[in-house]
Amino acid sequence: MKKVNIQLVIICMLASLCACTKQDNYSAPSATVMGSVIDATTGKPIQTEQPNGIKMRLLEEKYGANVSPLDYWIKADGTFDIANVFSGQYKVVPIEGAFFPADTAVVDIEGVKEVSFTVTPFLTLTTSATVSGTDVIVNYKLSRAKVADKILDCKSLLSAYPTVSYAINEMSVTHDLTLVPDETALSTSYADTLHNVGAGTYYVRAAARTNNANNKYNYSEVIEVKVQ
């Protein structure tokens, strides 16, 4: 009896090993989806930060309502390039940015697929920067194409890194606008001086935030300045 039991154990072990070594017939994910999130007010890719700026969400259609979303951070310049995706039909939409909800696109992703989205930002910033001795002066104005939440603050930002944002900066000037009427904030020309900046190359931009659900900032384009 013991001999029979030992033989049964050996057979079960061999069957288990065969199951473990069974080849996976699924092809590795190799498709790519790329494109831009366009700012409707400028016609250019929207300015954001990276990470924590805007996510691109992919929902594979074949799984229906039970599908788990695939979320990817887009780049600070408003473009995205998502590789190693399984081929198939997806719902694709940018989310969690400082803009009004975007339309969802249904996209057949196979090989390299390009798709772009147009969104309306909560605020648009028109910005310039000049150098005066060891100071950097940032001039900007706020505008908006559509009324949304109260404007909370705006700021000038300077960093030694091109990824300058409200979280990545070495110098900043902030204006608290919580008690300022939006009409006043939108009609004001801001001129902030960042004093005694050391010699070198820096990156400057302006940012402004409304009381939006995701607490996200709208940004101007990044401006490179050189201080002698």
TrEMBL record:
InterPro entries: DUF3823_N (IPR024278)
Taxon lineage: Bacteria, Pseudomonadati, Bacteroidota, Chitinophagia, Chitinophagales
Protein name: DUF3823 domain-containing protein
Signal peptide: 1-21
Organism: Danxiaibacter flavus
Highest taxon, organism lineage: Bacteria
Keywords: Signal
Residue stretches making up the DUF3823 domain: 32-120
Pfam families hit by this protein: DUF3823
